[in-house]
Amino acid sequence: MFMIGRTSGSPSGAPMHAQTPSARTISCDIDTRVTAPGAEFRLRARFEAPGRRIALFGPSGSGKSLTLLALAGLLKPHAGRIAVRDKVFFDAAAGVNVPARKRNVGMLFQDYALFPHLTVRDNVSFGLKPVFGPLRPAHRERVDELLELCGLAALAGQRPAQISGGQRQRTALARALATGPDLLLLDEPFTALDQPLREKMRAELFAILERFDLPMVMVSHDLDDVEHFAQTLVAFGQGRVLDVVAYEDRRRTETARQILDPLFQAAQSPD
Amino acid sequence: MDTTFLFPVQLSLRVATLATLSSLTFGVLAGWVFHRYRFPGKELLDSILSLPMVLPPTVLGYYLIVLLGRKGFVGHWLEETFGVTLIFTWQGAVIAAAVVSFPLIFKSARAALDAVERKYEDAARTMGYPEWRVFLRVCLPLAGRGILAGTMLAFARAMGEFGATLMIAGNLPGRTQTLSLAVYSATQAGQDDLAAQLVLLISVLCTLVLWVSGRLLTPRWQA
Fold first, then answer.
1. Helical H runs in chain B?
2. Cβ <8 Å between B122 and A175
3. Domains of chain B
4. Across the interface, do B120 and A107 touch by the CB < 8 Å criterion?
5. Band of the pLDDT at A18, cuts 50, 70, 90?
């Protein structure tokens, strides 16, 4: 569980182990209402997405981020069922709702949500901290390895306010990976960065993630993110799932625009 | 220095410290419950808990006598079960000071906890933290400054408590006479020198408390 840089099964290749289809699928069928003062949003997201790298794609306000929160256990839908790779996280009918802390899901927040009162090192080791006393030696080693891998070793003693946007993102990534999650959720990981840095960070982030054999779900409205990342694409629009696309397969014969343009149009058009 | 001078000083410090510790515990707990949970009548309960901040201290003193006096609901029970009376004791003064200082901590704790962005708590949850650890490791440190500011105000309020203390603990020199009561008595009795000394001392003490806590409040990090 605590190995870094597992090289088996490169994320771009086909899965190496023979598994039943459901074991590699994220299935989500949720119905919920989110109310803010003066507004109500209805989300009805139903999809079955295979693949190790799933992109939830759609314009802002289409419900993709809420779906991600529901996967993480940070939002409880009113009805429905969520199962990730054979594990039932939520089943309203059966009264199942695994709390976020027991889902073993890593989350990279949109603006990183680094703890401002803690150093880079304490942020990264946060999830490994025992209730009393210092980190176990094995965990210490893991934190050191992660800091090294993410190029943060020299910044370990700094606080989030003292480091750059790219460094913050890598800190957040190291923090999410430290607990050895079974699934990594990425919420618009690059929108907080400006354009030239975005390109660089995208390459860096995926280079780091390639060393971890981790299934991932990314929320994005950025074409470039999808192009670099998606094996499977779940297209959102107006609080619903419009389509599930085997993006990587279709890209062999079609251009990105041919696949995405109809989805853009469908997301814009009213019901 | 004679005891007429020293006793009120040390009694006031003891009463204010104990009262502040008690309202710190209950105020932060209540602030957290209000931050974390939704329940019917929540805002009404908030108003009721904040009442001691706005009600005249004598009204609070009246309530406390009704509650804790010999014939009072709680007072009667205490006397029957433990043989304890709170009326005309310094412990009664602690209760009076705790009640008036509670809302200052409760209000600032709730506001400070509500100001902690939810994403920080969520991040801790995804890393396996149960709610009580989220509170200790995330909410408390991030809300710490606001809570400390409220604690300072609460201590100052407890030091200056007069009306409710007078009603529940009386003004017994050497037993329940706190500093603010001693100043009143000295002025009434024409002991102007004593009054002046007491006033000077309490002013220096309070300045010291404010200065020290102000230094403690300087943040070591910036969000």
1. 3-36, 42-54, 57-68, 73-82, 90-114, 118-126, 131-134, 140-160, 163-169, 179-188, 192-217
2. no
3. 3-217 (1.10.3720.10)
4. no
5. very low
